[in-house]
Specification:
Distance between the termini: 95 Å
Shape: elongated
Strand content: under 5%
Number of strands: 0
Number of helices: 5
Structural class: mainly alpha
Largest sheet: none
Helix content: 40-55%
Keywords: Membrane, Plasmid, Transmembrane, Transmembrane helix
Radius of gyration: 35 Å
């Protein structure tokens, strides 16, 4: 078994030099720091990478899907042009093409003598009515 070093022999060494058989505190602290830094940078990278997709959620469904596909392409190909295109697409509002096209189709149908499609009838959800507070719920008749 090795003898411990005499304190007079190690007085000139820096504080981070560990004596034989003792725990290297600096190594443990730096290992924890590096692990936390790598995890933190990864979280930041994925949050930043998902930024265009989060911004597109307030837009139209088609716009959000295109931005999501561009973000996935940028993630898997490491091509920043896809990410920039997705970010620009998320920032710009997409014009509504469907409303004028539906209006044109209805007008052409009326001009051709077709019947106007019936307006959709709102369906009332079957919600059981609750009795007013303080009254007993109605009971069903039982067979005897």
């Amino acid at each position: 078994m090795a003898e411990p070093l005499h304190p007079a022999a190690t007085h000139h060494l820096p504080a981070f030099v560990t004596a034989p058989g003792e725990t290297d505190v600096l190594f443990v602290v730096m290992t924890i720091f590096v692990l936390l830094a790598v995890i933190g940078i990864g979280i930041f990278y994925f949050k930043l990478h998902a930024l265009p997709e989060q911004m597109a959620h307030r837009g139209q469904k088609v716009q959000m899907e295109i931005v999501a596909v561009l973000a996935l392409l940028a993630l898997f190909t490491h091509n920043h042009a896809f990410w920039i295109a997705g970010l620009l697409l998320a920032l710009l509002p997409m014009p509504d093409f469907m409303t004028p096209l539906v209006s044109i189709a209805r007008s052409l149908d009326r001009m051709a003598g077709g019947a106007e499609p019936p307006a959709p009838v709102p369906v009332k959800a079957a919600v059981p009515e609750t009795p007013p507070p303080g009254t007993a719920p109605p009971t069903e008749p039982r067979e005897v």
